Amino acid sequence: MLRNLESAGNPWGVPQSQRADWAKDLEVRVWAPGEDPPEVLYWVGCAASFDDRAKRIARAMARVLEAGGVSFAILGEREGCTGDPARRMGNEYLFQTLAEANVATLDAAGVRTIVASCPHCFNTLRNEYPDYGGTYEVVHHTELLESLVRVGRLSPGSRDELLTYHDPCYLGRHNDRYDAPRSLLSHVPELRTVEMPRHRERGFCCGAGGSRMWMSECLAIRAKKEPDAWTTFNTKSLLGGALLGQKKYGAAEPLLRGRVGLLTGAARVEVACPFCLVMLDDGARAGGHDLEVLDVAEVLARSLPPE
In whole angstroms, how far apart are CA 251 and each of 223, 248, 255? Predict the structure, then answer.
């Protein structure tokens, strides 16, 4: 992952020239040097740019921003990883290199308002880039979308569903943003929500934070050393993503951390982070559960009238 950041500018190692491929068939403005800055810069992030499942978040965001009359643009291949994974793993030099490059790009574009759909990007841009001269107004996409619905610029249609919402760590505990996603869902007519047993400040991590998105751990091996820990993990069924480890050893099954969501009776789990989305979505499919995982932007996009 660190080598990919150094060579390609993103953890997936995909060429930067493909960063805006998710928007090829959409009328999304890609800012170019010399152009006027957009009213809002949509910071797509690496996950929504390169991960096939998370790309749907970016596409949903493009639709709802357009429907809300928001003048926005993306940086395309000029957007680099914020450096969050490198800093969490302790590679401070690589983080600073990426941060300084991004600040230079944002300043050249004259950007002042940034909306980010990834809480990791949101946290880094908002709280850490000022140390490198990058001071911007940074909002999470749930905050912007909630305001658009609240003032009437977006009018969701009815969705007769029961959903449960998972709090991302870097949106909730790290930045105290708990209300906007819930308020946004409450504005969708007939949409019902139920809280998980652990939520808000007590919510469980999906398991992808701290750069563990690119690591794997097999509790079956750990169980041989700590049998009681395996039983505890299995019975508590920690909320999170898919598998702490992707390999099976002996008769031990990979641990599906999304089972707590099933206890609520909800047909879908809503998230506000692409890492949480990938982890929970993979876990639901790997565990054979008929549990759909959606980002709140996708829920809002689905509730809008057909284009």
Answer: 12, 7, 12
- Contact status, residue 92 vs residue 134, Cβ threshold 8 Å: no
Q: Are residues 47 and 133 in the same domain?
A: yes
Report the C-alpha gap between 307 and 146 in whole angstroms.
21
pLDDT at 147 over 70: yes
In a domain, 157, yes or no: no
Residues linked to residue 206 through DSSP beta bridges, in sequence order = none
Identity of residue 203: G
Contacts of 188 (CB under 8 A, 6+ apart): 156, 157, 158, 159, 299, 300, 303
Q: Which two tokens stand for residue 219?
A: 């509790």
Query: Considering only CA atoms, which of 73, 72, 7, 85 is closest in space to residue 46?
Result: 85
Q: Tens digit of pLDDT for each residue in 165-203?
A: 889 999 999 999 999 999 988 888 888 888 887 788 888
Q: Which residue has the higher pLDDT, 282 or 260?
A: 282
Residue 149's pLDDT band, with cuts at 50, 70 and 90, is very high
Which residue did the predictor score with more confidence, 288 or 79? 79
Which own/partner pairs from 108-113 qualify as long-range (CB within 8 Å, at least 24 positions apart)?
Answer: 108/33, 109/31, 109/33, 109/37, 109/41, 109/75, 110/36, 110/37, 111/37, 111/38, 111/41, 111/136, 112/37, 112/136, 112/137, 113/39, 113/40, 113/41, 113/137, 113/139
Quick one: 191 and 275 in the same domain?
A: yes
Better-predicted residue by pLDDT, 284 or 300? 300
Contact 293, 225 (CB under 8 A): no
The parent domain of residue 90 ranges over: 2-150
Name the domain count of the chain.
2
